[in-house]
Amino acid sequence: MQDMQQSEDVLEDWFIESLKTYKDLHVYQLEHPTRVIEWTSGKTVCVAGYSSSKNEILELRLPLKLFADENKGLCAERDFKVVHGGFTDGPVRRLRHVPGTRCVVTNDGLSSDLQVWDLGGDDSDVIRQTGSVKGRRSVSEGGSRVAARLSSRPRVLHGAQSGDVQLTELTSGQPVYKLESDSADPVGSLHFVTDAVFVVGCSNGNVHVADTRTSDAPQLSPPPSGESVTWWTDVSAGPSCLDPSSCRIVRLSSSGLTVISDLRKPGGAVSRAQLDVQTRCCNVDDVRVSWAPSLDDCIAVSGFSGAVQIYDTSVWRAEPEEVRPLFEHRGHAVSSQSDDGVPVFVTSHVWHPERSRTLLSAASDGSVHVWDWVDQSAADG
Amino acid sequence: MPEIKVTPLGAGQDVGRSCILVSIGGKNIMLDCGMHMGYNDDRRFPDFSYITQNGRLTDFLDCVIISHFHLDHCGALPFMSEMVGYDGPIYMTHPTKAICPILLEDFRKITVDKKGETNFFTSQMIKDCMKKVVPLNLHQTVQVDDELEIKAYYAGHVLGAAMVHIKVGSESVVYTGDYNMTPDRHLGAAWIDKCRPDILISESTYATTIRDSKRCRERDFLKKVHESIERGGKVLIPVFALGRAQELCILLETFWERMNLKAPIYFSTGLTEKANHYYKLFITWTNQKIRKTFVQRNMFEFKHIKAFDRSYADNPGPMVVFATPGMLHAGQSLQIFKKWAGNEKNMVIMPGYCVQGTIGHKILNGQRKLEMEGRATLDVKLQVEYMSFSAHADAKGIMQLIRMAEPRNMLLVHGEAVKMEFLKGKIEQEFSIDCYMPANGETATVTTNPSVPVDISLNLLKREMALGGPLPDPKKPRTMHGTLIMKENSLKLVSSEQALKELGLNEHQLRFTCRVQLQDPHSDNDTLHRIYTHLKSVLKGYTIQHLPDGTVMVESIVIKVSSSAEDANTKVLLLSWSYQDEDLGSFLSTLLKKGLPSGLC
């Protein structure tokens, strides 16, 4: 009883504080927690369950209030709308939207095969599986990572290990490119830099940069430090990255050491920092580091706890120093609905593609938050 | 097969008005009688021609039940009862009965006085309509008549909102009205027991929504108020006297205390008068837990909230004022609005829906220039905020409710079936129940499987037991014979003899006789013997006897042979059997008509 009152107070405090620290804040509770949040349009996202048997995959439309810029005050709509839904037979650990289509591709985190889904149009609310894509080599754990880029012929980049990465055309199921490498590094993430150049970020810290126009072996860079830790990667890509040489890569390790490199020289480091990650019981798969699409030099980190941290990497130096986050979203931790004593942790986060400080985050207790944070340093200064 | 029919009145895809007809066990019930707020003509009223083309509805409806006081659920009630005509009982909870007429009168005034409508109900009609109301208490079974009973359950949502359980015989339906499953600060969450109704009726919009938390809505409210106050602005909050005002006051009071704010908060006198009334209604309606919260915070002794005097509106500096009426259509709230509208530092927060024709409705639609009396125009420079605090269930909530009530079938109204396939599949999969989605004006027919309780007489039971053999169990039912007697409303299974005795009837025996002609060049006795041999070889397992009195008996069937008068080789077989052996008897007659096989000795 005492605990409940205390947590009520903490929650109350956080909400009062949020009046100053957030512009918009929305808190939702899904029936089942999700480990994926993926944009399927400027206003819709897909989420999906990860229990071992049957799960739901949902396409949600964000609240109208979030987008009503001029007449925001006149719009009272704050809820998510479930626009499409479907059922999967297994867990969904990765979900990727294929740009320019109404397709998404999922992976269960166990095998290397992908399932292809049609999200449906206006005339139906059912998300249906339309096919599958076989992994180049079968695996029984770890599963495949997926990346996709807007292209005239829908295709996905996928693989569970660095030597198995391939680019497959969806309609024919035929591979259009296969990464030729003897390496077998477990893939942490895949990123397109341009239509032809992509990066394979491996969880052992290796980074492969490949070009689909050549049959050369990919350029390999080893991890920034010799410690045996797990690494997570993100590559900044977007309008400013038409020239691959202006792209940057961030690598975050489970020890907290974070390194920013130029894609031209992935082996080198532009800047470093030591983040306080407090690795307690985080699930390797759920840690995510991401570049902000429209906020220069900012990254978001989640998965180590019940919080999402935003860092401004422009102030980082060559030698790693302890840095504090520019902003920390603790909403999931303070409003946790978990009553089995297991601390809640953030399972996923995404940045809004245009609204520079808006993010969506999901946690293990089924909560999903949409938040637009205030840069206090800018506000105060 | 017994069935329950459900028809949501209305046409096409329009939502925004609730009026559902249910036919169950020969009874017809109307659930809610809402007004469609988007129309100005007759389309705002439900189309009662479905019930009857002309004339009053009294003969066609056994009762009307209203779930809560929102106009889209009760707005057309006086029209239905007084202008179309209905004199039967109208059921609603006590708070709904108290609040409905006030809202209806407000609504009537706006529609008739402000908009000059003519085809509308009058004040007297509202009064006459309310005279037909029979108030309900929570969890109390009410007998509408000998067969129809109803019971109200707590729905949360607003004061007095109820979910209703309707039962006729062993068939039942639960209608949810509007409800919420996450506990609200003051209204709590809906609750129902495992009543296992044949159908659970709810809104489809809930099932496709995932609601933002109440806390975030409150946060937005506090943020807006705080921002205005900080820049020296004045905040007007027009409220309905018996609605959300008290809840928002408590929210502000706590916030002011917490943040140590000094700006004054006022509560207009119109509200304080009604507040007593509201408080009494509220206290008797809510449960123990909620009651305690209110007793602790005496609603009328806020530290930071004072009674308003109209002269304060001209005071300089920031302030917050709660004033009636809620849609800015008249009175104090409108007066204050006129004074404050010209200053962009000020703000008006509309906490609920505004009816067409009111200033509230206009500004919520973005109108920035208003025409007032005497051709004067008012420039609306202040900030307008629309906030919705209504507690509604969502996708998760609806699944929780289904788990609670365990209905045999689900029925969702006001949705497009084509766009709800996923939802239908979800409900069907998770609960293995059918999900119906009738369009407006369409009837959904749900077949029920009511169990009919029957008393079995002790004698009959003892006799069956005495027959021996294994005891019957669900996997191996045993056939037994008896007679079902329906007396008054009870059903009894008794032995045939007892039934005859009770009914004062004599038992009759039915015997069939049949003549079969056979060509057989033998003596009568020999023919009989040949028949006996033939039957013995065909009917193995049956008791066949050749009796000394010149007959053959198969079970209880008697066969006699005699020769035709004209021709000794033409034999006439006389077969005789009782009703119980009819099958065997007709089998034998068909068999013997075929004649005797030649190989018989």
Description of the structure:
The complex is a heterodimer of chains A (381) and B (601). In chain A, a hairpin with a 4-residue loop joins strand 2 and strand 3 (44-48). Chain A has four helices and 28 strands. Chain A has two domains: 1-28 and 228-374, no CATH class; 31-222, Methylamine Dehydrogenase, Chain H, CATH 2.130.10. In chain A, the strands form seven sheets. Chain A has a four-stranded antiparallel sheet with strand order 1-28-27-26. Chain A is mainly beta and 381 residues long. Chain B has a seven-stranded mixed sheet. In chain B, strands 7-8-9-10-11-21-22 form a seven-stranded mixed sheet. With 601 residues, chain B is an alpha/beta fold. At the A-B interface, helix 1, strand 1 and strand 5 of A face strand 12, helix 6, helix 7, strand 20 and helix 12 of B. Strand 5 (80-88) of chain A pairs antiparallel with strand 12 of chain B, so a sheet runs across the interface. Chain A: InterPro entries: WD40/YVTN_repeat-like_dom_sf (IPR015943), WD40_repeat_dom_sf (IPR036322), WD40_rpt (IPR001680), Wdr73 (IPR042795). Chain A: One of its GO terms (biological process) is cytoplasmic microtubule organization. Chain A: This is WD repeat-containing protein 73.
List the helices and strands and how they pair.
The complex is a heterodimer of chains A (381) and B (601).
Chain A: H1 2-21, E1 22-29, E2 38-39, E3 44-48, E4 55-61, H2 64-67, E5 80-88, E6 94-98, E7 103-107, E8 114-118, E9 128-133, E10 145-148, E11 155-159, E12 166-169, E13 175-178, E14 187-192, E15 197-202, E16 207-211, E17 219-221, E18 231-235, E19 248-253, E20 257-262, E21 271-274, E22 288-291, E23 298-302, E24 308-312, E25 327-329, H3 331-334, E26 346-351, E27 358-363, E28 367-373, H4 376-380
Antiparallel strand pairs in A: 1-28, 2-3, 3-4, 4-5, 6-7, 7-8, 8-9, 10-11, 11-12, 12-13, 14-15, 15-16, 16-17, 18-19, 19-20, 20-21, 22-23, 23-24, 24-25, 26-27, 27-28
Chain B: E1 3-8, E2 20-24, E3 27-31, E4 63-65, H1 71-74, H2 77-85, E5 90-93, H3 94-114, H4 123-131, E6 133-136, E7 142-143, E8 148-154, E9 162-168, E10 171-175, E11 199-203, H5 204-207, E12 209-210, H6 214-230, E13 234-238, H7 245-259, E14 265-267, H8 269-285, H9 288-296, E15 305-307, E16 319-323, H10 331-340, E17 347-350, H11 359-364, E18 369-371, E19 377-379, E20 383-386, H12 395-405, E21 409-413, H13 421-431, E22 434-436, E23 444-447, E24 455-456, H14 458-466, E25 483-487, E26 490-494, H15 496-503, E27 511-519, H16 524-538, E28 544-547, E29 551-554, E30 557-563, E31 570-578, H17 582-593
Parallel strand pairs in B: 3-4, 4-5, 5-6, 10-11, 11-21, 13-16, 13-17, 14-15, 14-16, 17-20, 21-22, 24-26
Antiparallel strand pairs in B: 1-2, 1-23, 2-3, 7-8, 8-9, 9-10, 18-19, 25-26, 27-31, 28-29, 29-30, 30-31
Helix pairs in contact in B: 2-4, 3-4
